[in-house]
Amino acid sequence: MKKAVVLLSGGLDSMVCAALAREGGYWVVALTVDYNQRHRVELEAAKTIAKRLADHHILLPLDLRAFGGSALTSDIAVPKEGVGEGIPVTYVPARNTIFLSLALGLAEASGARDIFIGVNALDYSGYPDCRPEFVAEFERLANLATKAGVEGERITIRTPLLDMTKADIIRTGMRLGAPLHLTHSCYDPVGDLACGQCDSCLIRREGFLKAGVEDPTRYAVG
């Protein structure tokens, strides 16, 4: 059976990615990075989702609070004014580059030649490492920098959600029977409740509304 590494955060997009990998007939190795993020509740979500959708799950500690530079890895306040112009302070420096590098190492070591990541270039917060140009360049690097790539076992970065709206992603999850209710997307949770006001919550809420699907998320506000 073909094998894939899926970056699984515990959020909606990565969960739908995992479900699509399963639908595609892959043996799924889920990789969750515990980077000491503010929204640690997503780690518990990832563990629960992995039990449903992954054949093997790795939770890898990597403390990016040692670097800081983001509202998710420092004491900078998470904005609650909605999605604005420019790159927001919730951007974690080089996060997807770091995560894909870890996934690449795991893929080569485990014999997987496909890596799934739930980046999205439509309904998102403007992060530079969610763009198709970034994915294309990382895939090129992956095949230059690995034994597998040099020996002709091409590594492919799969981004099935790249051109989807959040509503499209939710509809896809519904079609697959994926456990949308287990996902957690909030950047600034209140206990186990989503705050309802951060960029991620606002994009998620609007997505469910546009998809015509009942939002199972429990919000602290609204």
Structural features, described:
This protein has 222 residues and is of the alpha/beta class. The chain has one domain (3-211): Rossmann fold, CATH 3.40.50. It is built from 7 helices and 5 strands. It has helices at residues 12-23, 41-53, 95-110, 132-145, 147-150, 166-176, 199-211; strands at 3-7, 27-34, 56-61, 114-116, 156-158. A 5-stranded parallel beta sheet has the order 3-2-1-4-5, sandwiched between helices. Strand 2 (27-34), helix 2 and strand 3 (56-61) form a beta-alpha-beta unit. 41% of the residues are buried. The mean pLDDT is 95.
Quickly describe the structure.
Helices cover 37% and strands 11% of the residues.
